[in-house]
Structures are given as C-alpha cells and as structure tokens.
Specification:
single chain, two-stranded antiparallel ribbon, 2 helices, 4-stranded mixed β-sheet
C-alpha cells in the first residue's frame, strides 16, 4: 500500500514480468484504439467511460471517383456519416460485396473531400447495405469498428486529432 508503480524496485519487477509474459506470447505490444481524456491528457479504461445512446444525425457527402490519372471524375459515391469531422482521416470507402449498386466500383478509388486524397473502395460484409447509402467511410484512427476494418484490409491509420482534442 505504500509502493508506487514507478518506485525503482517495483518498476524493475513490473518490467521483468511484462518482458517474461511478452516472451511467452501471452501479451502483445502494438498500436490499439484507446479512450483518451483530453482534459487529463491520459488514456482511460473502458470501465471508466460512461457510454450514452444518443439520437444521431446523418450527413450525406459526395466522394468523387478517381479517374485513371487520379483526378476527380464527374461520378461520385454518396456516403452517410454521423462523423463528418473525421473526413481527413478517411483511408477507404467500404461497401458490402453483395450490394449490386456498387459492383462496378470493385478495384476503384475515390477522393476524400477537401483534400482529394485517393483512397481505395473496399468490399466487406461488415457494411449494412440498408443503412444510410450502404457505403461507409472508413476512418481507422477514430472508430473501433473502422480500426478493425483497417487491420483486416491493411489500411493506413491517419490520426487527425491533437492531444487536446482539436483537429491537427
């Protein structure tokens, strides 16, 4: 009760145990989605977060398709999102592989609005064709479901937030 994690003798013991567990393959080290407290500037456990179900609003955005030269075409895919502020971190658009509306886009690319970053159009059964437009903007750094899609499809992770919660 009088020892702190960063006390030298305690710290060495913790380090030894973690290295041992890692060596046995029982724990891993890597980037993971966390809950961030912008006021305290620290990570929070899932148990410390108070979740609330709220009625959201959908924003509809046009992502113009990229031509062979990477320039925007006149064609676009419409996305419905509750988080338009995360646009700068989008690294893909995802549609359901059984959704006939998007079959012609297989292997194609779209451009992120405002910055015209070229991103792939990917297919995954995670997307509900009946929700919104049936197309999902994937922002792996800002949503756990998008993060998991990003891992599955080997997408870049672009964090657009500063430590204080403002956009970088």
């Amino acid at each position: 009760r009088t020892t702190f994690t960063m006390d030298e003798h305690y710290y060495q013991a913790v380090l030894k145990v973690f290295v041992d567990l890692y060596g046995k393959g029982l724990i891993y080290r890597g980037a993971r989605m966390i809950n961030w407290d912008v006021a305290a500037k620290t990570a929070l456990s899932d148990e410390e977060v108070e979740y609330k179900d709220l009625e959201g609003k959908l924003y509809f955005l046009k992502y113009f398709l990229a031509g062979a030269n990477g320039e925007p075409t006149k064609d676009f895919i419409s996305i419905a999102t509750q988080r338009p502020e995360t646009i700068m971190g989008d690294t893909a658009i995802c549609v359901n592989p059984n959704d006939e509306r998007y079959m012609k886009l297989k292997g194609g690319f779209a451009l992120v609005p405002l910055i015209k970053q070229k991103i792939p159009i990917i297919f995954d059964e995670y997307v509900d064709p009946a929700f919104g437009t049936g197309a999902l903007k994937v922002t792996p750094a800002h949503d756990i479901n998008d993060y998991n899609l990003g891992l599955k499809h080997n997408l870049d992770i672009v964090d657009t937030l500063n430590e204080d919660g403002t956009l970088s």
